[in-house]
Design goal:
By secondary structure, this protein is α+β, with helices and mostly antiparallel strands. It is 40% helix and 16% strand. It has 7 helices and 4 strands. The chain is globular. The structure holds adenosine-3',5'-cyclic-monophosphate.
């Protein structure tokens, strides 16, 4: 079994779509191992997305991610990282496949409802960014 990090982003959380997204993820075969609801500070959003800091959308992304509460989740499944990327679809909902989370629930390329780790190494780093060892027992 493998674990990955998802974040239900402020667009989806604010629009009352979190429950439907979580149900979709569970129906897709993921087991929920940890969850929290939080409002990211600017420093936390900047640090989490530091890899994108040279991109033109970085400032806007940080503003969006700090605009309201979000819901980080630890999800478990066989091959969790690629499986979750497949389940959520392409970054831009207009390019995401039928039935994917972003096709169903996202508003735009930036306000795209959900984040998912892109490698096992980043999944470990991102899980420990939001959760401590005691959150992940059992
Ligand atoms: P995520 O998978 O969380 O990783 C980086 C985020 O940046 C991405 O989802 C989008 O929310 C945002 N993003 C990526 N590309 C663009 C873009 N071209 N314009 C605006 N936002 C983007």
């Amino acid at each position: 079994m493998n674990r990955t990090l998802a974040i239900i982003k402020p667009d989806a959380t604010g629009a009352g779509k979190a429950g439907k997204i979580l149900a979709h993820l569970e129906a897709a075969g993921f087991t929920l191992r940890a969850a929290r609801m939080m409002h990211l500070s600017e420093a936390a959003a900047r640090s989490f997305y530091e890899v994108h800091k040279e991109r033109p959308f970085y400032g806007s992304l940080v503003e969006f991610m700090t605009s309201g509460p979000c819901i980080p989740l630890v999800l478990e499944a066989e091959g969790a990282v690629p499986r979750l990327r497949e389940t959520i679809g392409a970054t831009d909902p207009a390019e995401a496949g039928e039935g994917t989370v972003r096709r169903l629930f996202a508003e735009s390329k930036e306000r795209n409802a959900i984040h998912a780790s892109d490698s096992d190494e980043n999944a470990s780093r991102e899980i420990s960014y939001f959760f401590s060892g005691t959150d992940l027992l059992g």
